[in-house]
Description:
By secondary structure, this protein is of the alpha/beta class.
Amino acid sequence: xxxxxxxxxxxxxxxxxxxxxxxxxxxxxxxxxxxxxxxxxxxxxxxxxxxxxxxxxxxxxxxxxxxxxxxxxxxxxxxxxxxxxxxxxxxxxxxxxxxxxxxxxxxxxxxxxxxxxxxxxxxxxxxxxxxxxxxxxxxxxxxxxxxxxxxxxxxxxxxxxxxxxxxxxxxxxxxxxxxxxxxxxxxxxxxxxxxxxxxxxxxxxxxxxxxxxxxxxxxxxxxxxxxxxxxxxxxxxxxxxxxxxxxxxxxxxxxxxxxxxxxxxxxxxxxxxxxxxxxxxxxxxxxxxxxxxxxxxxxxxxxxxxxxxxxxxxxxxxxxxxxxxxxxxxxxxxxxxxxxxxxxxxxxxxxxxxxxxxxxxxxxxxxxxxxxxxxxxxxxxxxxxxxxxxxxxxxxxxxxxx
Length: 402
C-alpha cells in the first residue's frame, strides 16, 4: 500500500501553489477529487504550457499536467447553488480540503472552514493565498510573481546596480507548497492522535521568507540591506556562469577555497595565476573579480560545457552544465531515478515529473494523467458520493455539472 491510501481529498485549488499539494497526496495514494468548471477553466495553468509540438491546446498544458496528475476530475459550477451543494457534500466526504481562492471567496460559496466544520468536525482545511486570510494585506490577490516582489526576491536577482530581472517563474508558488505539504501531514498526525481537525492558513509570502533567512539575519545584526550580486557569492571566487562552446551553452564553476582555485588554474594551463597576488587569496580574488572572470571565460568559451563539467569534477572543482530542458530529459541521474513519467492521455501522452522523494517500502505511484474538466463525473458522483442516476441527471439538467 502507498502511505496515504484511504485519505480523501477535495481539491478546490487552482494555478500552482495549491494543486501541487494535492498532486503530492495523490502520488502517495490519496483519492483526490479536483473540481474545475469548464465555464471557468484554470486559465493560467492551462494556458501557460509548455505544449506538445509547441501547439497551444488548453487540455494539454505541461504545467497543468504536472500539477494535477493522479487526480479525479469533477466539473462543477460553483456559481450555482446546485454546484455548491455538491461541493458541500464532497467536503463532508473528505478528510482534507485544499483551496487557493482569493481570501473571502470560500465564505461567499458557503464553503469556509467554519461552515464545513459544522458538517464535518474532523475536516482539515488548507487555505493557501498570497498574503494569508487576514491582516492589512489579507484581501490582496496575486500570483507568485507578485509574491516574489513583496518578499524581496526581486531586489536580489540581477546584476549589481542594474534593473532587477526577477526570479524564474512565480517563485513563491514553487516554495510555499513544500511548507503547505508538511504542515498538512502534521495536521493529519494531530488528528490521528486527538480526533481534531484544523484550519491551516498558508501565506505564500510569509512561507517563502524562510528562504531569505540569511539576508534578514544580516540586516537585524548589522543594518546592512542585501543587494543583487548577479551570479557572485560573498564567500567564494570564482563563483559564476561562464560561456561555453555553442549557442546558449554555459557552465557554472565555483572555487570554494584557495586549493580548488589552484586546481582550476592548473587545469586551465594557467597555474601562475594561483600565485598571482591578484588571485592568491579569496580577498584578492574578490577585489579583482572582473579580471578573474574574464580569464576563466576566455578559457571556457572554446570548450564544450560537458567536457568542462567532467574534467573539473574529476579534479575536485565544482562545475556543472547550465542545463537546458533537453539536457534534463537526457540526464543520467534523473533517468536512473525515473524522474520523468509518461502517462496515457485522452489526446496522446502526458509527461510529468515524479515525486521529489523515494520511499523504500511505500513508493509513489502514478495512476492517471491530469483530468480534463468532468472526466470522472460519474465515478465521483456515483461511487464516492452514492448519487443515483436520477440525481445525476437532474444535476446535469440544472447546468451544475459544467
